[in-house]
Amino acid sequence: MATDRDSVLEAAVGVLSRRPTAHLDEIARAAGISRATLHRIFPGREALIREVGTLGLRRFAAALDTARIEEGDAQAALRRLVDAVVPDAALCAFLAGENQLYDDPGINDLWEVQDARVRALFLRGQQQGVFRIELSAGWLSEAFFDLVAGIGWAVQDGRLAPRDGAFSLAELFLGGALRRPDTP
Amino acid sequence: MATDRDSVLEAAVGVLSRRPTAHLDEIARAAGISRATLHRIFPGREALIREVGTLGLRRFAAALDTARIEEGDAQAALRRLVDAVVPDAALCAFLAGENQLYDDPGINDLWEVQDARVRALFLRGQQQGVFRIELSAGWLSEAFFDLVAGIGWAVQDGRLAPRDGAFSLAELFLGGALRRPDTP
DNA sequence: AGCAGATGAGACGTTGATGTCTCATTCTAT
DNA sequence: ATAGAATGAGACATCAACGTCTCATCTGCT
Protein backbone atom coordinates (compact mmCIF):
# COMPACT_ATOMS: atom_id res chain seq x y z
CA MET A 1 0.00 0.00 0.00
CA ALA A 2 1.64 3.20 -1.15
CA THR A 3 -0.78 5.17 0.96
CA ASP A 4 0.65 3.59 4.08
CA ARG A 5 4.20 4.54 3.14
CA ASP A 6 3.16 8.07 2.34
CA SER A 7 1.25 8.52 5.59
CA VAL A 8 4.35 7.47 7.50
CA LEU A 9 6.46 9.87 5.48
CA GLU A 10 3.92 12.58 6.15
CA ALA A 11 4.28 12.04 9.88
CA ALA A 12 8.05 11.90 9.58
CA VAL A 13 8.08 15.32 7.95
CA GLY A 14 6.20 16.78 10.88
CA VAL A 15 8.96 15.69 13.21
CA LEU A 16 12.01 16.05 10.99
CA SER A 17 11.27 19.52 9.70
CA ARG A 18 11.65 20.80 13.24
CA ARG A 19 14.34 18.50 14.51
CA PRO A 20 16.36 16.82 11.76
CA THR A 21 18.16 14.69 14.35
CA ALA A 22 15.02 13.17 15.84
CA HIS A 23 15.36 9.52 16.83
CA LEU A 24 13.54 6.78 14.96
CA ASP A 25 11.55 6.07 18.11
CA GLU A 26 10.08 9.52 17.93
CA ILE A 27 9.28 9.29 14.23
CA ALA A 28 7.64 5.90 14.68
CA ARG A 29 5.53 7.19 17.55
CA ALA A 30 4.51 10.24 15.51
CA ALA A 31 3.41 7.91 12.73
CA GLY A 32 1.45 5.75 15.16
CA ILE A 33 3.49 2.64 14.46
CA SER A 34 6.24 0.76 16.25
CA ARG A 35 9.91 1.09 15.50
CA ALA A 36 9.90 -2.49 14.20
CA THR A 37 7.25 -1.72 11.61
CA LEU A 38 9.08 1.43 10.63
CA HIS A 39 12.11 -0.72 9.88
CA ARG A 40 9.93 -3.12 7.91
CA ILE A 41 8.79 -0.28 5.66
CA PHE A 42 12.12 1.53 5.35
CA PRO A 43 15.41 -0.37 5.55
CA GLY A 44 17.03 2.28 7.71
CA ARG A 45 17.28 5.88 8.67
CA GLU A 46 19.13 6.88 5.56
CA ALA A 47 16.49 5.36 3.33
CA LEU A 48 13.74 7.09 5.29
CA ILE A 49 15.37 10.49 4.97
CA ARG A 50 15.91 9.92 1.29
CA GLU A 51 12.29 8.94 0.79
CA VAL A 52 11.08 12.02 2.63
CA GLY A 53 13.29 14.13 0.40
CA THR A 54 11.99 12.56 -2.78
CA LEU A 55 8.42 12.89 -1.56
CA GLY A 56 9.02 16.58 -0.97
CA LEU A 57 10.48 17.03 -4.41
CA ARG A 58 7.69 15.03 -6.03
CA ARG A 59 5.11 17.22 -4.30
CA PHE A 60 6.98 20.35 -5.30
CA ALA A 61 7.16 19.18 -8.90
CA ALA A 62 3.45 18.34 -8.78
CA ALA A 63 2.74 21.86 -7.52
CA LEU A 64 4.68 23.30 -10.44
CA ASP A 65 2.62 21.14 -12.78
CA THR A 66 -0.67 22.03 -11.14
CA ALA A 67 0.13 25.71 -11.32
CA ARG A 68 1.16 25.39 -14.98
CA ILE A 69 3.98 27.82 -14.31
CA GLU A 70 5.17 27.62 -17.90
CA GLU A 71 1.93 29.14 -19.20
CA GLY A 72 0.58 32.66 -19.48
CA ASP A 73 1.34 35.74 -17.48
CA ALA A 74 4.23 35.27 -15.10
CA GLN A 75 2.57 37.01 -12.18
CA ALA A 76 -0.59 34.95 -12.52
CA ALA A 77 1.54 31.83 -12.82
CA LEU A 78 3.40 32.68 -9.63
CA ARG A 79 0.14 33.29 -7.79
CA ARG A 80 -1.08 29.89 -8.93
CA LEU A 81 2.19 28.41 -7.74
CA VAL A 82 1.75 29.98 -4.32
CA ASP A 83 -1.67 28.43 -3.94
CA ALA A 84 -0.42 25.08 -5.11
CA VAL A 85 2.72 24.92 -2.98
CA VAL A 86 1.53 26.31 0.35
CA PRO A 87 -0.26 23.09 1.38
CA ASP A 88 3.10 21.34 1.10
CA ALA A 89 5.05 24.10 2.79
CA ALA A 90 6.11 21.77 5.60
CA LEU A 91 7.82 19.47 3.11
CA CYS A 92 9.60 22.42 1.60
CA ALA A 93 10.71 23.46 5.06
CA PHE A 94 12.23 20.03 5.50
CA LEU A 95 14.01 20.27 2.16
CA ALA A 96 15.37 23.69 3.00
CA GLY A 97 16.72 22.57 6.35
CA GLU A 98 18.21 19.31 5.17
CA ASN A 99 21.12 20.53 3.10
CA GLN A 100 22.69 17.19 3.81
CA LEU A 101 20.42 15.62 1.24
CA TYR A 102 22.43 17.21 -1.51
CA ASP A 103 24.94 14.40 -1.15
CA ASP A 104 22.49 12.11 -2.91
CA PRO A 105 22.95 12.52 -6.68
CA GLY A 106 19.42 11.41 -7.52
CA ILE A 107 17.84 13.97 -5.24
CA ASN A 108 20.29 16.60 -6.36
CA ASP A 109 19.35 16.09 -10.00
CA LEU A 110 15.64 16.15 -9.22
CA TRP A 111 16.09 19.37 -7.31
CA GLU A 112 18.06 20.96 -10.11
CA VAL A 113 15.26 20.31 -12.57
CA GLN A 114 12.60 21.93 -10.40
CA ASP A 115 14.81 24.85 -9.47
CA ALA A 116 15.51 25.47 -13.14
CA ARG A 117 11.78 25.57 -13.82
CA VAL A 118 11.23 28.21 -11.16
CA ARG A 119 14.21 30.21 -12.38
CA ALA A 120 12.79 30.07 -15.91
CA LEU A 121 9.51 31.42 -14.59
CA PHE A 122 11.24 34.43 -13.10
CA LEU A 123 13.35 34.94 -16.21
CA ARG A 124 10.23 34.88 -18.33
CA GLY A 125 8.56 37.33 -16.00
CA GLN A 126 11.52 39.65 -16.27
CA GLN A 127 11.39 39.49 -20.05
CA GLN A 128 7.66 40.22 -19.91
CA GLY A 129 8.39 43.29 -17.81
CA VAL A 130 6.48 41.84 -14.86
CA PHE A 131 9.34 41.12 -12.46
CA ARG A 132 12.16 43.44 -11.53
CA ILE A 133 15.36 42.97 -13.44
CA GLU A 134 17.58 44.40 -10.71
CA LEU A 135 17.21 41.13 -8.80
CA SER A 136 18.64 38.04 -10.45
CA ALA A 137 16.30 35.23 -11.33
CA GLY A 138 18.45 32.91 -9.25
CA TRP A 139 18.04 35.00 -6.15
CA LEU A 140 14.29 35.40 -6.72
CA SER A 141 13.98 31.65 -7.02
CA GLU A 142 15.98 31.00 -3.88
CA ALA A 143 14.23 33.69 -1.87
CA PHE A 144 10.85 32.35 -2.92
CA PHE A 145 11.77 28.91 -1.66
CA ASP A 146 13.10 30.36 1.58
CA LEU A 147 9.79 32.10 2.19
CA VAL A 148 7.82 28.97 1.38
CA ALA A 149 9.89 27.16 3.98
CA GLY A 150 9.28 30.04 6.38
CA ILE A 151 5.56 29.62 5.88
CA GLY A 152 5.92 25.94 6.65
CA TRP A 153 7.79 26.54 9.89
CA ALA A 154 5.49 29.34 11.01
CA VAL A 155 2.37 27.28 10.40
CA GLN A 156 3.80 24.21 12.08
CA ASP A 157 4.77 26.19 15.16
CA GLY A 158 1.41 27.90 15.30
CA ARG A 159 2.77 31.38 14.62
CA LEU A 160 0.76 31.69 11.42
CA ALA A 161 -2.74 30.52 10.62
CA PRO A 162 -2.76 27.99 7.77
CA ARG A 163 -5.41 30.03 5.98
CA ASP A 164 -3.10 33.07 5.95
CA GLY A 165 -0.18 31.21 4.43
CA ALA A 166 -0.85 31.80 0.74
CA PHE A 167 -1.82 35.43 1.20
CA SER A 168 1.18 36.27 3.37
CA LEU A 169 3.56 34.60 0.98
CA ALA A 170 2.17 36.07 -2.23
CA GLU A 171 1.75 39.59 -0.93
CA LEU A 172 5.13 39.86 0.69
CA PHE A 173 7.06 38.22 -2.10
CA LEU A 174 5.31 40.04 -4.94
CA GLY A 175 4.64 43.40 -3.38
CA GLY A 176 7.22 43.68 -0.61
CA ALA A 177 6.81 45.15 2.82
CA LEU A 178 6.46 48.77 1.75
CA ARG A 179 3.07 50.30 1.48
CA ARG A 180 2.37 51.55 -2.02
CA PRO A 181 1.06 55.10 -1.96
CA ASP A 182 -0.57 54.74 -5.36
CA THR A 183 -2.67 51.69 -4.52
CA PRO A 184 -4.89 52.65 -1.59
CA MET B 1 42.05 35.14 24.74
CA ALA B 2 38.48 35.78 23.73
CA THR B 3 39.62 36.30 20.15
CA ASP B 4 40.72 32.69 20.00
CA ARG B 5 37.37 31.41 21.19
CA ASP B 6 35.54 33.60 18.73
CA SER B 7 37.69 32.54 15.79
CA VAL B 8 36.90 28.92 16.57
CA LEU B 9 33.20 29.75 16.84
CA GLU B 10 33.45 31.59 13.54
CA ALA B 11 34.84 28.48 11.88
CA ALA B 12 32.25 26.31 13.56
CA VAL B 13 29.49 28.42 12.08
CA GLY B 14 30.87 27.87 8.61
CA VAL B 15 30.48 24.13 9.04
CA LEU B 16 27.38 23.93 11.23
CA SER B 17 25.23 26.30 9.21
CA ARG B 18 25.42 23.85 6.34
CA ARG B 19 25.46 20.59 8.23
CA PRO B 20 24.17 20.85 11.81
CA THR B 21 25.20 17.26 12.48
CA ALA B 22 28.84 17.74 11.55
CA HIS B 23 31.28 15.77 13.72
CA LEU B 24 33.61 17.52 16.11
CA ASP B 25 36.53 16.27 14.03
CA GLU B 26 35.26 18.27 11.10
CA ILE B 27 34.67 21.40 13.15
CA ALA B 28 38.12 21.17 14.70
CA ARG B 29 39.73 20.74 11.29
CA ALA B 30 37.79 23.71 9.93
CA ALA B 31 39.07 25.80 12.84
CA GLY B 32 42.62 24.64 12.22
CA ILE B 33 42.98 23.02 15.62
CA SER B 34 42.88 19.46 16.93
CA ARG B 35 39.90 17.80 18.51
CA ALA B 36 41.76 17.76 21.83
CA THR B 37 42.20 21.53 21.82
CA LEU B 38 38.58 21.98 20.82
CA HIS B 39 37.63 20.03 23.93
CA ARG B 40 39.99 22.18 25.98
CA ILE B 41 38.19 25.33 24.86
CA PHE B 42 34.62 23.99 25.00
CA PRO B 43 33.67 21.27 27.48
CA GLY B 44 31.61 19.41 24.90
CA ARG B 45 29.46 19.53 21.84
CA GLU B 46 26.47 20.91 23.67
CA ALA B 47 28.50 23.79 25.07
CA LEU B 48 29.95 24.54 21.65
CA ILE B 49 26.54 24.68 20.01
CA ARG B 50 25.24 26.88 22.79
CA GLU B 51 28.18 29.25 22.44
CA VAL B 52 27.68 29.50 18.70
CA GLY B 53 24.04 30.30 19.31
CA THR B 54 24.77 33.00 21.84
CA LEU B 55 27.44 34.46 19.57
CA GLY B 56 24.89 34.66 16.77
CA LEU B 57 22.36 36.33 19.02
CA ARG B 58 24.97 38.75 20.39
CA ARG B 59 25.92 39.72 16.86
CA PHE B 60 22.29 40.09 15.88
CA ALA B 61 21.62 42.26 18.90
CA ALA B 62 24.70 44.31 18.09
CA ALA B 63 23.41 44.80 14.55
CA LEU B 64 20.09 46.06 15.94
CA ASP B 65 22.03 48.49 18.13
CA THR B 66 24.29 49.65 15.32
CA ALA B 67 21.32 50.25 13.06
CA ARG B 68 19.50 52.16 15.83
CA ILE B 69 16.27 50.52 14.72
CA GLU B 70 14.31 52.30 17.41
CA GLU B 71 15.05 55.69 15.90
CA GLY B 72 13.62 57.72 13.05
CA ASP B 73 11.84 56.61 9.92
CA ALA B 74 11.05 52.93 9.90
CA GLN B 75 12.11 52.34 6.33
CA ALA B 76 15.46 54.04 6.86
CA ALA B 77 15.91 52.08 10.07
CA LEU B 78 15.26 48.82 8.24
CA ARG B 79 17.74 49.73 5.52
CA ARG B 80 20.33 50.43 8.21
CA LEU B 81 19.50 47.08 9.76
CA VAL B 82 20.03 45.30 6.46
CA ASP B 83 23.48 46.80 6.10
CA ALA B 84 24.35 45.94 9.67
CA VAL B 85 23.09 42.37 9.65
CA VAL B 86 24.20 41.09 6.26
CA PRO B 87 27.86 40.62 7.32
CA ASP B 88 26.60 38.21 9.97
CA ALA B 89 24.12 36.48 7.71
CA ALA B 90 25.89 33.15 8.11
CA LEU B 91 25.33 33.25 11.85
CA CYS B 92 21.66 34.01 11.28
CA ALA B 93 21.50 31.08 8.89
CA PHE B 94 22.81 28.87 11.65
CA LEU B 95 20.25 30.23 14.11
CA ALA B 96 17.44 29.66 11.63
CA GLY B 97 18.44 26.08 10.98
CA GLU B 98 19.08 25.11 14.56
CA ASN B 99 15.58 25.07 15.97
CA GLN B 100 16.88 22.65 18.54
CA LEU B 101 18.54 25.55 20.35
CA TYR B 102 15.18 26.69 21.55
CA ASP B 103 15.38 24.10 24.29
CA ASP B 104 17.89 26.29 26.10
CA PRO B 105 15.96 28.84 28.17
CA GLY B 106 18.76 31.40 28.16
CA ILE B 107 19.02 31.44 24.39
CA ASN B 108 15.28 31.40 24.07
CA ASP B 109 14.93 34.49 26.24
CA LEU B 110 17.67 36.31 24.37
CA TRP B 111 16.00 35.49 21.09
CA GLU B 112 12.63 36.67 22.32
CA VAL B 113 14.06 40.07 23.21
CA GLN B 114 15.62 40.63 19.79
CA ASP B 115 12.59 39.32 17.95
CA ALA B 116 10.39 41.68 19.92
CA ARG B 117 12.60 44.59 18.89
CA VAL B 118 12.25 43.73 15.22
CA ARG B 119 8.51 43.24 15.57
CA ALA B 120 8.29 46.63 17.25
CA LEU B 121 10.11 48.14 14.30
CA PHE B 122 7.55 46.78 11.88
CA LEU B 123 4.69 47.82 14.11
CA ARG B 124 6.08 51.33 14.28
CA GLY B 125 6.46 51.37 10.53
CA GLN B 126 2.87 50.28 10.09
CA GLN B 127 1.70 53.05 12.40
CA GLN B 128 3.81 55.53 10.43
CA GLY B 129 2.12 54.37 7.25
CA VAL B 130 5.40 53.07 5.87
CA PHE B 131 4.79 49.33 6.02
CA ARG B 132 1.73 47.47 4.80
CA ILE B 133 -0.82 46.66 7.43
CA GLU B 134 -2.25 43.66 5.58
CA LEU B 135 0.78 41.66 6.69
CA SER B 136 1.20 41.09 10.40
CA ALA B 137 4.27 42.49 12.10
CA GLY B 138 5.04 38.99 13.34
CA TRP B 139 5.11 37.57 9.83
CA LEU B 140 7.18 40.48 8.53
CA SER B 141 9.69 39.90 11.28
CA GLU B 142 9.88 36.19 10.63
CA ALA B 143 10.09 36.56 6.87
CA PHE B 144 12.85 39.12 7.24
CA PHE B 145 14.88 36.71 9.30
CA ASP B 146 14.22 33.90 6.82
CA LEU B 147 15.58 36.05 4.01
CA VAL B 148 18.63 37.05 6.02
CA ALA B 149 19.31 33.36 6.55
CA GLY B 150 18.76 32.80 2.85
CA ILE B 151 21.38 35.42 2.09
CA GLY B 152 23.76 33.65 4.41
CA TRP B 153 23.27 30.28 2.73
CA ALA B 154 23.45 31.68 -0.77
CA VAL B 155 26.67 33.55 -0.05
CA GLN B 156 28.26 30.60 1.69
CA ASP B 157 27.45 28.29 -1.21
CA GLY B 158 28.70 30.80 -3.74
CA ARG B 159 25.32 31.35 -5.35
CA LEU B 160 25.31 35.02 -4.42
CA ALA B 161 28.16 37.52 -4.38
CA PRO B 162 28.74 38.91 -0.88
CA ARG B 163 28.59 42.43 -2.27
CA ASP B 164 25.07 41.82 -3.61
CA GLY B 165 23.72 40.57 -0.30
CA ALA B 166 22.47 43.81 1.22
CA PHE B 167 20.96 45.07 -2.02
CA SER B 168 19.19 41.82 -2.82
CA LEU B 169 17.77 41.58 0.67
CA ALA B 170 16.61 45.17 0.99
CA GLU B 171 15.11 45.44 -2.47
CA LEU B 172 13.23 42.19 -2.39
CA PHE B 173 11.96 42.53 1.13
CA LEU B 174 10.95 46.16 0.89
CA GLY B 175 9.82 46.39 -2.71
CA GLY B 176 8.89 42.83 -3.61
CA ALA B 177 9.47 41.01 -6.85
CA LEU B 178 6.99 42.97 -8.95
CA ARG B 179 8.22 45.76 -11.11
CA ARG B 180 6.58 49.06 -10.19
CA PRO B 181 5.24 50.85 -13.21
CA ASP B 182 5.25 54.21 -11.47
CA THR B 183 8.90 54.16 -10.44
CA PRO B 184 10.97 53.62 -13.58
C1' DA C 1 70.09 26.71 25.79
C1' DG C 2 66.55 25.56 29.09
C1' DC C 3 62.06 25.53 30.99
C1' DA C 4 57.02 25.99 31.25
C1' DG C 5 52.92 25.94 28.92
C1' DA C 6 50.21 24.74 24.98
C1' DT C 7 49.18 21.78 21.19
C1' DG C 8 48.66 17.55 18.27
C1' DA C 9 48.20 12.73 17.69
C1' DG C 10 46.40 8.80 19.17
C1' DA C 11 44.46 5.25 22.38
C1' DC C 12 40.65 3.91 25.30
C1' DG C 13 36.17 3.34 27.62
C1' DT C 14 31.42 5.03 27.56
C1' DT C 15 27.18 6.01 25.72
C1' DG C 16 23.29 6.13 22.85
C1' DA C 17 21.13 5.26 18.49
C1' DT C 18 20.69 1.91 15.17
C1' DG C 19 19.77 -2.56 12.93
C1' DT C 20 18.32 -7.32 13.65
C1' DC C 21 16.17 -10.83 15.98
C1' DT C 22 12.36 -13.46 18.51
C1' DC C 23 7.87 -14.09 20.36
C1' DA C 24 3.24 -12.90 21.80
C1' DT C 25 -0.76 -10.50 20.23
C1' DT C 26 -3.98 -8.65 16.96
C1' DC C 27 -6.14 -8.25 12.59
C1' DT C 28 -8.05 -10.27 8.31
C1' DA C 29 -9.88 -13.23 5.03
C1' DT C 30 -12.03 -17.47 4.05
C1' DA D 1 -13.88 -20.31 13.98
C1' DT D 2 -9.38 -20.85 12.17
C1' DA D 3 -5.19 -20.26 9.56
C1' DG D 4 -2.17 -16.87 7.85
C1' DA D 5 -0.24 -12.38 7.89
C1' DA D 6 0.90 -8.24 10.11
C1' DT D 7 2.07 -5.67 14.10
C1' DG D 8 3.93 -4.42 18.77
C1' DA D 9 7.03 -5.07 22.46
C1' DG D 10 11.27 -6.07 23.90
C1' DA D 11 16.01 -8.14 23.96
C1' DC D 12 20.45 -8.10 21.89
C1' DA D 13 24.68 -6.95 19.26
C1' DT D 14 26.93 -3.42 16.60
C1' DC D 15 28.87 0.81 15.68
C1' DA D 16 30.02 5.49 15.54
C1' DA D 17 30.61 9.71 17.99
C1' DC D 18 31.83 11.54 22.21
C1' DG D 19 34.58 12.54 26.36
C1' DT D 20 38.87 11.60 28.76
C1' DC D 21 43.39 10.32 29.09
C1' DT D 22 48.54 10.03 28.06
C1' DC D 23 52.66 11.25 25.78
C1' DA D 24 55.51 13.37 22.29
C1' DT D 25 56.23 17.67 20.02
C1' DC D 26 56.16 22.49 19.45
C1' DT D 27 56.14 27.35 20.86
C1' DG D 28 57.28 31.28 23.59
C1' DC D 29 59.82 33.35 27.18
C1' DT D 30 63.87 34.07 30.17
UniProtKB/TrEMBL annotation, chains A, B:
Transmembrane annotation, as ranges: none
Gene3D superfamilies with a match to the protein in the record: Tetracycline Repressor, domain 2
Ranges of residues in domain HTH tetR-type: 2-60
UniProtKB keywords: DNA-binding, Transcription, Transcription regulation
UniProt KW DNA-binding keyword: yes
Keyword Iron: no
DNA-binding residues (ranges): 23-42
Pfam family, one: TetR_N
Protein name stated in the entry: AcrR family transcriptional regulator
Organism listed in the record: Kitasatospora paracochleata
Phylogenetic placement of the source organism: Bacteria, Bacillati, Actinomycetota, Actinomycetes, Kitasatosporales
